[in-house]
């Protein structure tokens, strides 16, 4: 039996804004991050890695590579910081108008109860406050890191908070629900109950999934009641492209989300591939009065995106368990890795891991371009159509293949409790930057502090005692390298232009050109004679 999630006891802090004060649901949340650098350090994580690991048996080194696949490695990028800001605002704004201290939730529960009895006419109309909140969609190709990013940001919150001062009220800060493959709306609802049960140790899934037979409208009504009962702060629905996309189903889903956000005040984050763009478009239309648009996640081969991917790849490169490892990859190798992966984080990571496994097995003990090519050709066949579509830039092709499953890495169970030879530097213990001086220095070189905050955190992590001038020099070098790398990648991906000469102009070509000789010949035997003469 699965161990139920352990709730934390509410500890109330000053949230900093007047509209947030006096609301226990907000005061029990973590302090809002005001410093992007602090946020980047909080999100960052890396696996245990030491020089001593290279002395381990080859099989143990292969097991150690599993640390990269278990979520131990996370390098925050600017889009992760932007996502955290949006989710932070969504959760808190949703709680503003659902304050148990002012009995707002009790009113909602009574209204929902009357609706479930079909007695909506009994609800008297009183002057009420608009409860509409911000919701958004997160769209990106499979493997682009959408789900990982959402879960990483949400991990900065306690998921379940108990409030002893409010009759032990249980506050569910967020819940992530995955839409089942080829699932209908009823299946989505049942997955919601299952997700709730895993946190609260309740039996909603058994009740609504097996014990009683109810229609989709009743399931949705039950979902709303649970949302209200447990003060849900954010509902995340992942893999929404799997939902049956018929007009009736879409309209019903749209109405449900609209009621959650506009009537009950629960923000909804929809996550999916470009195949979910139809649902995403309808949701944006239903949120005319809400300021959050759809977030596009992934690589678009802009200079900024290329810099972000390079930052990720450079940090990842440090974690090698091959004996001929290098601290940094050469530019050709890095660019080739980008061309193969198209900047998709999950594919970049798996190419990197599988290449190391092969290098250890073959005793080559080194990551090379031919090795990456072999891994790509043999281990990534299932996603070649998607990557080819991304290389082509054809939107229709990208839409067609955007949700292909990324192949899993077949490694034996990762060895647990391995000895740690070197204690990893605690990111939280690094010194804070002299922000004002650094920002001023960056402005001289027309560099935006916010845009480069992840790179700054990376450099300060690598060089703890670095001064601001040296830091800016290294940052400028990275920016310049990204620009050159982008141009090189674009050049490599350009298709060579073919010089096609129409048949009618073959007679004007050089006389030793085979096409000219063919134009002067009426039969194959005559062409043969002309070729002999040309010789």
Automatic annotation (TrEMBL):
Signal peptide: none annotated. SMART domains: AAA (SM00382). InterPro entries: AAA+_ATPase, AAA_22, P-loop_NTPase. It comes from the Bacteria. Residues 132-296 form the AAA+ ATPase domain. It holds the Pfam family AAA_22. GO terms for molecular function: ATP hydrolysis activity. This is AAA family ATPase. The lineage of its organism: Bacteria, Pseudomonadati, Pseudomonadota, Gammaproteobacteria, Alteromonadales.
């Amino acid at each position: 039996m699965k161990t139920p999630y352990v709730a934390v006891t509410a500890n109330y802090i000053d949230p900093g804004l007047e509209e947030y004060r006096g609301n226990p649901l907000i005061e029990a949340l973590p302090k809002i991050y005001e410093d992007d650098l602090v946020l980047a350090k909080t999100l960052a994580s890396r696996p245990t890695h030491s020089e001593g690991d290279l002395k381990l048996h080859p099989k143990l080194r292969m097991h150690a590579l599993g640390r990269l696949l278990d979520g131990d490695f996370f390098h925050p990028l600017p889009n992760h910081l932007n996502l955290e800001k949006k989710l932070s605002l969504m959760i808190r704004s949703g709680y503003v108008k659902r304050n148990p201290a002012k009995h707002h939730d009790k009113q909602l529960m009574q209204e929902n109860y009357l609706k479930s009895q079909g007695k909506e006419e009994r609800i008297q109309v009183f002057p009420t406050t608009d409860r509409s909140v911000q919701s958004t969609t997160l769209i990106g190709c499979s493997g682009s890191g959408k789900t990982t990013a959402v879960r990483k940001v949400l991990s900065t919150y306690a998921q379940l908070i108990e409030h002893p001062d409010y009759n032990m009220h249980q506050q569910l800060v967020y819940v992530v629900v995955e839409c089942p493959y080829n699932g209908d709306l009823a299946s989505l609802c049942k997955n919601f109950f299952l997700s709730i049960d895993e946190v609260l140790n309740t039996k909603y899934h058994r009740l609504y999934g097996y014990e009683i037979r109810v229609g989709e409208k009743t399931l949705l009504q039950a979902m709303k009641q649970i949302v209200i009962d447990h003060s849900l702060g954010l509902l995340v629905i992942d893999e929404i492209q799997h939902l049956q996309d018929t007009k009736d189903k879409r309209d019903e889903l749209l109405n449900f989300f609209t009621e959650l956000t506009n009537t009950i005040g629960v923000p909804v984050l929809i996550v999916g591939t470009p195949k979910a763009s139809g649902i995403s478009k309808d949701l944006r239309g239903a949120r005319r009065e809400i300021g959050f648009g759809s977030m596009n996640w992934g690589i678009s081969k802009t200079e900024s995106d290329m810099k972000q991917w390079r930052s990720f790849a450079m940090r990842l490169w440090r974690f090698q368990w091959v004996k001929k490892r290098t601290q940094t990859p050469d530019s050709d190798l890095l660019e080739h890795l980008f061309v193969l992966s198209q900047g998709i984080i999950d594919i970049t990571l798996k190419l990197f891991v599988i290449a190391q496994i092969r290098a250890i097995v073959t005793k080559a003990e080194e990551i090379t371009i031919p090795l990456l090519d072999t891994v790509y050709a043999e281990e990534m066949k299932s996603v070649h159509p998607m990557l080819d579509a991304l290389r082509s830039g054809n939107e229709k092709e990208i839409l067609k293949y955007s949700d292909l499953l990324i192949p899993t890495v077949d490694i034996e169970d990762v060895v647990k409790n391995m000895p740690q030879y070197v204690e990893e530097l605690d990111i939280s213990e690094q010194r804070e930057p002299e922000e004002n001086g650094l920002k001023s220095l960056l402005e001289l070189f027309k560099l935006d502090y916010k845009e480069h905050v992840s790179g700054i955190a990376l450099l300060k992590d690598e060089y703890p005692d670095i001064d601001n001038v040296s830091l800016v020099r290294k940052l400028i070098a990275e920016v310049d390298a990204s620009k050159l790398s982008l141009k090189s990648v674009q050049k490599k991906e350009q298709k060579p232009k073919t010089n096609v000469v129409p048949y009618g102009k073959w007679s004007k070509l050089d006389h030793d050109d085979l096409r000219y000789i063919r134009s002067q010949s009426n039969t194959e035997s005559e062409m043969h004679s002309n070729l002999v003469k040309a010789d």
